[in-house]
Hints:
The chain is of the alpha+beta class. The protein is built from three helices and eleven strands, in the order H-E-E-E-E-E-E-H-E-E-E-E-H-E. The termini are far apart.
Amino acid sequence: MKSxxxxxxxxxxxxxxxxxxxxxxxxxxxxxxxxxxRRVSVGDKTMVVSAPRPWNRHRPILFxxxxxxxxxxLNGPLLDGISFxxxxxxxxxxxxxxxxxxxxxxMFRSDMTPPEVAAxxxxxxxxxxxxxxxxxxxxxxxxxxxxNGFQLDYxxxxxxxxxxxxxxxxxxxxxRLYLILIDAARSHYWDAALPDFEALVASARLQRV
Length: 209
């Protein structure tokens, strides 16, 4: 498991790379790629959203390289980040994990209730993100992608002693999980990124691939 301090160092290096190499560095390679201000497909391409301003796709840190998950950031993934979960199937996980690991993030089940999805997200932060304190602020119904979905608001403290806030808006549709999640440092970055998140949620649509 990566500790939050290691994640912080990784995020700092990614942020520095982004400053100089978004869209391709000196050798045509970057950990980031620019997201245009137009409708774009995310994750496994079954969801489309409209970015209200330029963001950057980045290699995942909290979520690992799962085809149904895509991550964006403006200022580095531990300062602000938005994740898209698109059509996660029954029995699949948000992250890659060894069966022998002593701590496990629960697999998604197609019959999960919103409180169970919320508990899965909390487990993700505690097991993989190194959160030492995780607080659910609210869990309420909210329409999403034309379905009866939910909104989870939370905050968490990691071992780098930085409080972060998060919001997840999602729904289980045809037995699959669709979710957009924002997580950002509670001071400044949360307020700055939240309007973009809400615009992305409002713009989200499903498409056939």
